[in-house]
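Good morning C.,

I know you're traveling, so I'll keep this short. The sequence:
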Amino acid sequence: MKMTASEAKALHAVLVATLRPLASMLLKFGVGYRDFAEASKIAFVEVASKDFGNSDRPQNISRIALMTGISRKEVKAVKDNQARGGATTTLLTHLPAEVLRLWFTSDRYCTSPGIPRPLVWDGEAGSFTELVHSCGASLSPVAMRAELLRVGAVKQDESGMLIAQRRYLISDSARDRLVEGLQFGVRPLALTVAKNASSVGLGGLRFQRVVISYSFSPDRREQVEKEITARLEQFSEELDDWLSEVGGNSGSGHNTEIGVGLFYFEDDDRIER
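The tokens, ready to paste straight into the viewer:
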């Protein structure tokens, strides 16, 4: 899909503006252009190989180089690294957050949606150990308990019962918040933008909205932020309860992840835990 000169110029300006906050975040943690360029190179090679190739025969190195503007030598290096088992994968489930989500939404671990039960450590149905293992058979309940206690998402009373304090995990590390923001904020939105940009006509578009007002004075911003945050928290919890109710466990070998920001997204690019 070839763009006109004016369209290309507009896209360039928007791309630079979009990358500025990303660059700001990355530079704060010592991630420079070379690291960003290397990640971009791998992504372009992977997408050109997978999404623009023939299902029976993947794109060859020369074609990928032509499409992406990356040299044949660099494309070959990326492909060789993938062949050696160095292909990039992304853990698309934040496991402590998944434990909390299940604790607050599954009738096995809560009295009603949003009201988690205090859990015994082990030895009976609906225990903390069982909860952790339901999110991943190889997970360590001991390590999970330690992490949730560390960030204050869970407390343990004198009898040893584990009591959930927060429905959502908020990392106490700025670096973790950066990774989670990219993984669960920027990436899902990018999936929806990519889907909508490739759709023909209006029928297949996914929900994507930004609600903006330009009329608020600076002295009201704090009040408005608190009100919007409260409304979004309530809405997110209601939607979380509903998704847990209607989703359940499909039992299939490959499930699709769906979710909502003020946009709807689907993500099939998952890895086995």
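Safe travels,
E.
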